[in-house]
Design a protein that fits this description.
three-stranded antiparallel sheet, 9 helices, 7 strands
Length: about 425
């Protein structure tokens, strides 16, 4: 903070008699704006009116009676703890001097008293310090180079002095803030020269040490570089060998992995194929269990799967109906054929039985035993006729054939059988008699 050289009274003016205002000078007396100093927020005006000092806190106007009648005006700084610097020189043991700077913190409490006494803080505080003669004796025993010792002594002395005898300016409160002993100019120059020489010497030493260190570091770096090259070469060869080993190992592992994956893939494909076959078999079995060999059901199943259109399904249904009709007709024909074959077999059996009877009769007649047995020719012919009728050769519309038939009633074909048999019997008998 910059402090005015005239503190605490910043400005003072002598006021002329206030003129009358208004047209033709018939108005009341008053001050103009330029008659009074400009007032900041931390400042006040003190007017001298008839030997008295009147404070203006900002409420008095330019036509105020005290303002109009005032002969002097003072502008006072009311800032709290305003720093005020006081500087004095004390002698040393040499030709030079020590410069002491003491800073005080000042606050105006009574502006009228300050203006009435007219004190300037810097001058009053300098006189306050000079009144303590012991301060000027503190540097006599010390050269300029003992500045630090002097600083301690002066600071302790001034602090003790302000405690025992505080500074007193009427209308103000004052407190010491700091004490500083400046380094003398000769000492500054001396130290500057010494620092220059020391710096030059340090630079030379640093340069020499740097060059020595640089040579040493360069030698060590060269050796380290050679070692690093050798190590790098060795490591490179080892790394190449390890890399080749790793590559071979990787190739082997990759081949083994591919083989394992191929085996696993084959097993998976085989398993999937087995599952697919099993599923197909199960599905086929289910379809067969539900459809069987029925083509109509097969067509309906294909239509439900979307494999047949409605038109194709209709064709399949019609074809199935035609096949069913053809199968029924075939069954009827097979039934008629079975009946016919059964009749033929029955007829063959009857003919075989008739042949056997005739053979027996012939054998009996050939041996001449015909006279020994009673043969009812009429009955035999009747049975032959019955056998022939049973084969469906005689009778009308499958009606019954008479069981008693004479030789005259039998058909010509049937009648010829006993006659032929009788002729054969007679020839056999004659042959036996001739014997």
């Amino acid at each position: 903070m910059k402090v005015s050289s005239s503190y605490p009274i910043i400005e003072q003016r002598v006021l002329a008699e206030a003129p009358k205002r208004g047209p033709f000078g018939f108005g009341g007396r008053g001050r103009a704006d330029g008659d009074l100093p400009r007032v900041d927020a931390h400042q006040v005006l003190v007017f001298r009116v008839d030997g008295r000092f009147v404070l203006d806190n900002g409420y008095r106007g330019l036509r105020d009676e005290q303002v109009v009648n005032a002969s002097h005006v003072s502008l006072v700084d009311m800032t709290r703890n305003t720093p005020v610097m006081v500087e004095l020189a004390i002698p040393s043991a040499e030709a030079g001097e020590f410069t002491v700077q003491v800073q005080f913190l000042c606050t105006v409490q009574d502006a009228e008293t300050v203006v009435r006494d007219g004190h300037e803080a810097t001058i009053a505080l300098l006189g306050y310090l000079r009144s303590h003669h012991r301060i000027f004796e503190l540097g006599l025993d010390h050269p300029l180079t003992a500045i630090n010792t002097v600083r301690r002594d002066v600071k302790a002395q001034i602090e003790a002095y302000t405690e025992l005898k505080p500074p007193n300016i009427p209308g103000m409160t004052i407190a010491m803030a700091s004490v500083e002993v400046l380094t003398p100019g000769e000492l500054v120059e001396l130290h500057r020269t010494l620092r220059g020489h020391q710096h030059g010497h340090t630079v030379e030493l640093t340069r020499a040490a740097h060059e020595t260190e640089r040579d040493r570091v360069r030698t060590e770096n060269d050796q380290a570089l050679d070692q690093m090259r050798a190590d790098y070469q060795r490591l490179t060869e080892e790394q190449q060998m390890r890399f080749e080993q790793q590559r071979l190992l990787y190739e082997r592992q990759r081949q083994e992995l591919e083989q394992a994956l191929d085996r696993q893939r084959q097993l998976s494909e085989q398993g999937l194929a087995r599952q697919a076959r099993a599923f197909a078999q199960e599905e086929t079995a289910e379809v067969y269990a539900s459809i069987g060999t029925d083509p109509l059901k097969a067509a309906l199943f294909a239509h439900s799967k979307g494999e047949l259109t409605t038109r194709e399904l209709q064709g399949e249904l019609e074809a199935a109906k035609e096949r069913e009709q053809a199968e029924q007709e075939t069954l009827r024909q097979e039934a008629r054929e079975d009946v016919r074959r059964a009749e033929e077999l029955d007829q063959a059996d009857r003919r075989y039985a008739l042949g056997v009877r005739l053979d027996v009769l012939k054998e009996v007649a050939r041996h001449g035993h015909l006279d020994e047995i009673h043969v009812d020719v009429e009955r035999l012919i009747g049975r032959l006729v019955d056998e022939s009728a049973g084969n469906g050769r005689y009778g009308v519309s499958g009606g019954p054939v008479p069981t008693t038939v004479t030789a005259a009633q039998a058909p010509e074909e049937v009648a010829e059988l006993p006659r032929a048999a009788s002729a054969e019997f007679a020839d056999d008998v004659r042959e036996e008699d001739g014997d």
